[in-house]
């Protein structure tokens, strides 16, 4: 597990705008927000990507994410949001410590200097029946 900027935040060596903390989880404001209220929720466990995260840390994150989301929506007045979780540089992960983005989405005019939220380019394919049967079986067989 490489040392990251989030390791330093977790150790209190660099500051953050903390939103929430418990035994397993820290949530703080993103320093380069895509929109007003953009918040990061991270496990204290040092895992680079989500496939490396323990069940215990995953459960802790899962317990707080909905609560964090409700708080972000209530505080910002946003009616919608994206939860984003990148794994690997090819998938736009810049900080190699697991983190969940809570990104409020605003429609219409946003105040100067604030973003509207996450923009998604979603170029979907089509899952054909037979390929789906085989693929679901392959993935399912590897769930541990
Ligand atoms: P990723 O692309 O890895 O999913 O996103 C990493 C996020 O961490 C980015 O949105 C970036 O703005 C945020 N970030 C990077 N360095 C810092 C920092 O020092 N403090 C805070 N609060 N956020 C950071």
Can you put this structure into words, describing what you see?
There is one protein chain. This protein is an alpha+beta fold. It has a single domain, classed as 2-Layer Sandwich (HIT family, subunit A), CATH 3.30.428.10. Helices cover 28% and strands 17% of the residues. It has helices spanning 5-10, 55-76, 129-141, and strands at residues 18-21, 25-29, 39-43, 80-84, 100-105. It has a 5-stranded antiparallel beta sheet with strand order 1-2-3-5-4, covered by helices on one side. A hairpin with a 3-residue loop joins strand 1 (18-21) and strand 2. The relative contact order is 0.17. The protein binds guanosine-5'-monophosphate (5GP). Guanosine-5'-monophosphate binds next to strand 2.
Overall shape = globular
Proportion of strand residues: 15-25%
Q: List how many beta strands DSSP finds.
A: 5
Low-confidence stretches: none
CATH topology: HIT family, subunit A
CA radius of gyration:
17 Å
CATH level-two architecture: 2-Layer Sandwich
Q: How many H/I helices?
A: 3
- Residue-averaged pLDDT, rounded? 96
User: Superfamily at the CATH H level?
Assistant: HIT-like
Helix coverage percent: 25-40%
The largest sheet is: 5 strands, antiparallel
Helix-strand topology string: HEEEHEEH
Structural class: alpha+beta
Strand order of the largest sheet: 1-2-3-5-4
Bound molecules: guanosine-5'-monophosphate
The CATH class assignment is Alpha Beta
